[in-house]
UniProtKB/TrEMBL annotation:
Protein name, per record: Alkylphosphonate utilization operon protein PhnA
Organism of this sequence: Gimesia algae
Pfam families: YjdM, Zn_Ribbon_YjdM
Transmembrane segments: none
PANTHER family cross-referenced by the UniProt entry: PROTEIN YJDM (PTHR30305:SF3), PROTEIN YJDM-RELATED (PTHR30305)
Ranges for domain Protein YjdM C-terminal: 46-113
Domain Protein YjdM N-terminal span(s) in chain numbering: 4-32
The family this protein is said to belong to: Belongs to the YjdM family.
Length: 113
């Protein structure tokens, strides 16, 4: 039995050490164990339109029709987006929208599903 922690991204138990980092072979996530132990929640808190805190991997629903810049397509109200990833910046949600593809959204136009 390994005493290494599970992967923070996919919760896989098959992590291994590679020099100073821990690596998850399932999802490919690499992290420094000292960083996660010292301050796991030191990043910015991202909240949806209703004030619920969003985390990586959540499912969200779009609450307003959003025009896609440079295209004539529209992301319709009620579109569900699975497995989001939080990023720094003005558009703080990175995701793949079914039928449209990869794009970034502002958290003020979504709600947690």
């Amino acid at each position: 039995m390994s005493d290494l922690p599970n992967c923070p991204e996919c919760d896989s138990e098959f992590t291994y050490e590679d020099r100073d980092l821990l690596v998850c072979p399932t999802c490919g996530h690499e992290w420094n164990p000292q960083d996660t132990a010292a301050g796991a929640a030191t990043g910015p808190v991202v909240r949806d339109a209703n004030g619920n805190e969003l985390t990586n991997g959540d499912t969200i629903t779009v609450i307003k029709d959003l025009k896609v810049k440079g295209s004539s397509t529209v992301v319709k109200v009620g579109t569900k987006v699975k497995n989001i990833r939080l990023v720094e910046g003005d558009h703080d949600i990175d995701c793949k929208i079914p039928g449209i593809g990869a794009m970034q959204l502002k958290s003020e136009f979504v709600k947690k599903a």
